[in-house]
């Protein structure tokens, strides 16, 4: 059998907008308080895009940092995938808008929709392209501007979300390194639990959809919470099994940053000490597709990941979907 290529992360970059919205700010907007938000979610503040920033602008900032860290130029890129649920426009894709901004003339470009699992889905997709030899490298970005689809009069959801972008460059790496396994999944039957209904072909934008709040995120928090705790456990076990690794071999655990209680329950199920788990939900809140790359890139920049470390990523989100990966750094 032909030996397949080893594919891994060869560059990283991240970006969050400057403006910070604190829990104290939200107390002035809806009937909530810092104590409730921190105890139920672990969130203290989140970054919010300025009115002239769209998702491609956040993605661009993360992308140029990732290119620099990989030692590549935009002209070297062969593929761009942006995982997002808040594209600049319905079409063209945000990846095409970014391709032009970067001047990545050689790159194929498309968006991928798997909500908060989108970044792991995107890396799995790019990994496949590079493994087959179709492309030598890929820029994979998780970027979302959730503030644009958040109803800031709804206390159930407006405290939970923030904006940001995280980017990686994938390429061939030495044998034994890079991605060991992926586990992707979907439970479309739960799609109603977390959705944005308006503006698609089922319910095109109209005065009624605007008045009915159909262009905002709808979420059944309790049911999504149960789903999250369940699949974080099962996806983690499955991706470790596929990688031939045990939970004792995990050096760093990078879970989707939606809620500290979901993160702690997943960490405890793996019997991991706190220092092996990346948490930044306090600073950025849930940034959807950007959440896992923001946590991963921040951990790498902070020197928390050494060469040869085994890193486990796992996330869940709208769809419903989940995605996990084991990487040797
Ligand atoms: C949303 C979430 C934080 C709510 O926490 P919870 O402990 O389940 O809270 P409950 O749903 O039991 O609500 C408790 C009460 O707090 C109230 N509440 C909700 N948001 C509030 C807020 N921001 N401030 C104060 N009170 C709030 C509710 O109205 C409810 O009041 P009631 O009992 O009088 O109706 C939690 O369900 C969650 O994190 N779910 C998963 C969400 C998620 O991960 N989404 C992203 C998927 S990618």
Automatic annotation (TrEMBL):
One of its GO terms (molecular function) is 3-oxoacyl-[acyl-carrier-protein] synthase activity. Its EC number is 2.3.1.180. Pfam families: ACP_syn_III (PF08545), ACP_syn_III_C (PF08541). One of its GO terms (cellular component) is cytoplasm. InterPro entries: ACP_syn_III_C, ACP_syn_III_N, FabH, Thiolase-like. The active site is at 116, 256, 286. It comes from the Bacteria. Residues 110-188 form the Beta-ketoacyl-[acyl-carrier-protein] synthase III N-terminal domain. The keyword Metal-binding does not apply. Pathway: Lipid metabolism; fatty acid biosynthesis. GO terms for biological process: fatty acid biosynthetic process. Keywords: Acyltransferase, Cytoplasm, Fatty acid biosynthesis, Fatty acid metabolism, Lipid biosynthesis, Lipid metabolism, Multifunctional enzyme, Transferase. Residues 257-261 are annotated as: ACP-binding. The keyword Lipid metabolism applies. It catalyses: 2-methylpropanoyl-CoA + malonyl-[ACP] + H(+) = 4-methyl-3-oxopentanoyl-[ACP] + CO2 + CoA; malonyl-[ACP] + acetyl-CoA + H(+) = 3-oxobutanoyl-[ACP] + CO2 + CoA; (2S)-2-methylbutanoyl-CoA + malonyl-[ACP] + H(+) = (4S)-4-methyl-3-oxohexanoyl-[ACP] + CO2 + CoA; 3-methylbutanoyl-CoA + malonyl-[ACP] + H(+) = 5-methyl-3-oxohexanoyl-[ACP] + CO2 + CoA. It is an enzyme of class 2 (transferase). Belongs to the thiolase-like superfamily. FabH family. Catalyzes the condensation reaction of fatty acid synthesis by the addition to an acyl acceptor of two carbons from malonyl-ACP. Catalyzes the first condensation reaction which initiates fatty acid synthesis and may therefore play a role in governing the total rate of fatty acid production. Possesses both acetoacetyl-ACP synthase and acetyl transacylase activities. Its substrate specificity determines the biosynthesis of branched-chain and/or straight-chain of fatty acids. The last Arg residue of the ACP-binding site is essential for the weak association between ACP/AcpP and FabH. Homodimer. This is Beta-ketoacyl-[acyl-carrier-protein] synthase III. The lineage of its organism: Bacteria, Bacillati, Bacillota, Bacilli, Bacillales.
């Amino acid at each position: 059998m032909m030996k397949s290529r080893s594919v891994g992360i060869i560059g990283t970059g991240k970006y969050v907008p400057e403006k910070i919205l604190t829990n104290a700010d939200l107390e002035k907007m809806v009937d909530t308080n810092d104590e409730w938000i921190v105890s139920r979610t672990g969130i203290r503040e989140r970054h919010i895009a300025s009115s002239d920033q769209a998702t491609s602008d956040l993605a661009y900032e993360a992308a140029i940092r990732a290119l620099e860290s990989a030692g590549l130029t935009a002209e070297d890129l062969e593929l761009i995938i942006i995982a997002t649920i808040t594209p600049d426009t319905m079409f063209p894709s945000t990846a095409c808008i970014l391709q032009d901004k970067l001047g990545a003339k050689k790159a194929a470009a498309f968006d991928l929709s798997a909500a908060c699992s989108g970044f792991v889905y995107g890396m799995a997709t790019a990994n496949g392209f590079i493994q087959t030899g179709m492309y030598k490298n890929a820029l994979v970005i998780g970027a979302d501007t959730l503030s644009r689809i958040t109803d800031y009069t709804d206390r159930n959801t407006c405290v939970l979300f923030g904006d940001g972008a995280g980017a990686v460059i994938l390429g061939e790496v030495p044998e034994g390194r890079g991605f060991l396994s992926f586990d992707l999944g979907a439970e479309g039957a739960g799609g109603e639990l977390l959705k944005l209904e308006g503006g698609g072909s089922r319910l095109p934008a109209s005065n009624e959809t605007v008045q009915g709040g159909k262009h905002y995120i709808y979420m059944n928090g309790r049911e999504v919470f149960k789903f999250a705790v369940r699949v974080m456990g099962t996806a983690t076990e499955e991706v470790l099994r596929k990688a031939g690794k045990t939970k004792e071999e995990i050096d760093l655990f990078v879970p989707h940053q939606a809620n500290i209680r979901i993160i702690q329950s997943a960490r405890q199920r793996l019997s991991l000490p706190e220092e092996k788990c990346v948490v930044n939900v306090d600073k950025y809140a849930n940034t959807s597709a950007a959440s896992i790359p923001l946590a991963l890139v921040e951990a790498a920049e902070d020197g928390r990941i050494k060469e040869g470390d085994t890193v486990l990523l796992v996330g869940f989100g709208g769809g419903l979907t989940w995605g996990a990966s084991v990487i040797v750094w």
